[in-house]
Design a protein that fits this description.
Oligomer: single chain
Radius of gyration: 17 Å
Number of domains: 1
CATH topology: D-Maltodextrin-Binding Protein, domain 2
Structural class: alpha/beta
Distance between the termini: 66 Å
CATH class: Alpha Beta
CATH architecture: 3-Layer(aba) Sandwich
Number of strands: 7
Helix content: 25-40%
Shape: globular
Largest sheet: 5 strands, mixed
Strand order of the largest sheet: 4-3-5-7-6
Length: 147
């Protein structure tokens, strides 16, 4: 039986090694939205209701059960942002965190902290992902409206 393996030449570049996130080989990027009015955000209904986001002009995106898929939609610009309730674990976030960052966005704690994937506790508090300016606006709004 003959076996073969790919042997890239010095001139070849593995997919993704040149930076940036891709979907089906095409570059993707987070949305350019930077303000709350008009933002399409995936989030739990209670967060939408209790944080006054409807009044701020934010629309709640249709439910997608998979957090990883919601974050991939942020990375591709198909959603402006994702807000989560407390509880996502390292395994829910780590790969999508890389994709969101490679697409030009940010993912972190709603409190502004960077997620620590080396921490012994694997669960995180509420998280937010999207373009940096929109994430900052969501954090500021949450600080004013969530006790």
């Amino acid at each position: 039986m003959r076996r073969s393996c790919a042997r890239p030449t010095a001139r070849s570049t593995p997919p993704g090694a040149d930076g940036g996130a891709r979907r089906n080989g095409q570059p993707i990027a987070v949305s350019a939205r930077c303000q709350l009015p008009g933002a399409r955000v995936a989030m739990p209904g209670a967060v939408y209701r209790d944080a006054g986001l409807r009044e701020a002009g934010v629309s709640r995106a249709d439910n997608v059960a998979s957090l990883a898929l919601r974050l991939a939609k942020v990375a591709s610009g198909r959603l402006d942002a994702v807000l989560t309730k407390p509880g996502p674990h390292h395994w829910d976030l780590a790969a999508a965190d890389l994709i969101v960052h490679e697409a030009g966005g940010t993912l972190g704690g709603l409190d502004g902290r960077t997620l620590d994937y080396a921490a012994p506790a694997t669960a995180h508090g509420p998280t937010v992902a999207g373009p940096a300016a929109l994430v900052a606006a969501l954090r500021a709004h949450a600080a004013e409206h969530v006790g």
